[in-house]
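ERR on first pass: missing label on line 2. Operator R.T. fixed the label and resubmitted. Corrected input:
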Amino acid sequence: GDSVTQMEGPVTLSEEAFLTINCTYTATGYPSLFWYVQYPGEGLQLLLKATKADDKGSNKGFEATYRKETTSFHLEKGSVQVSDSAVYFCALGDNNNDMRFGAGTRLTVKP
Amino acid sequence: DAGITQSPRHKVTETGTPVTLRCHQTENHRYMYWYRQDPGHGLRLIHYSYGVKDTDKGEVSDGYSVSRSKTEDFLLTLESATSSQTSVYFCAIRAGTVQETQYFGPGTRLLVL
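pass 2 clean. output:
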């Protein structure tokens, strides 16, 4: 079945460092891809999404490009802030009401 | 903010007792979902609903039942709670017209002793 694999954490960076969180997927169809962020004590919030190959999702300085050839959707940000500290989830969704999530990557940004 | 609330937000119960969690939405979305979140597993789908009285099983449905008697409420019931059901439970709705995008409630933290 469809699945998502994302890099294990935790990831610790200094403020203004470059961030990459890797995400690869396995899917039989043509899913949409998502990144969600979860701040402590809260639910998941949609960060960005891409619905087809070569689409780039972006929001709040974060970007991810839907790469069909490498089945990847890596999350990047050029300069992280302390407020970006959270858990990040990669997910894929198809038309069958089946959304699959990665295990999550905890990011800590230090001043 | 997709207008989703969950109650209770925290609950401690004992093994063998029934537990019902409530998800309430204010925007008339047709699709609603229940997930559980556990370390190392991300979120896993328990059940979902595609309309009033229309529900289906997800990946980890054993030990759970759901009901949806009106559009705005989706209830998750643990008939006889077990320690393995200690988890954080999230409700979600589906919104948008191009591929589904799910929006999540704040979660319910359940501890089964």
